Amino acid sequence: MASEKKLNLEKSLADLEKLVEELESGDLPLDKAMKKFEDGIKLTRGCQTALKDAEQKVDVLLKSTGGQESLQAFDEPD
């Protein structure tokens, strides 16, 4: 089941990237662009939920192993 969620997250991210490219092209009529934007918002919310769930699971695992580690924000290199 975890791999299914991962696959869905990765597919959602890929779909989101495609939507952004289509919207950035500027070739869509307004009604289609609005529909794609709405789809993108739904995908973004789903991705945020999946990432939040994963973060919570990691936090629970760290606490259950008795580790004193705490989650730190991931900073992407410049």
Overview of the structural elements:
The chain is mainly α. It has two helices and no strands. It has a domain at 29-55. 0% of the residues are buried. The mean pLDDT is 83.
Q: Classify the helix fraction into a percent range.
A: over 70%
Computed CA radius of gyration, to the nearest angstrom: 17 Å
Give the overall pLDDT as a whole number.
Answer: 83
Judging from the principal axes of the Cα atoms, what is the shape? elongated
Number of beta-strand segments = 0
Class derived from helix and strand content: mainly alpha
* Distance N to C terminus: 34 Å
How many DSSP H or I helices?
A: 2
Largest β-sheet summary? none
Unreliable stretches covering 5 or more consecutive residues: none
- Secondary-structure element string: HH
Give the percentage of residues in beta strands.
under 5%
Task: Give the arrangement of secondary structure elements.
Elements: H1 2-25, H2 30-64
Helix pairs in contact: 1-2
Supply database-style keywords:
mainly alpha; 2 helices; elongated
Summarize the structure.
The chain has 78 residues and is mainly alpha-helical. The protein has helices at 2-25, 30-64.
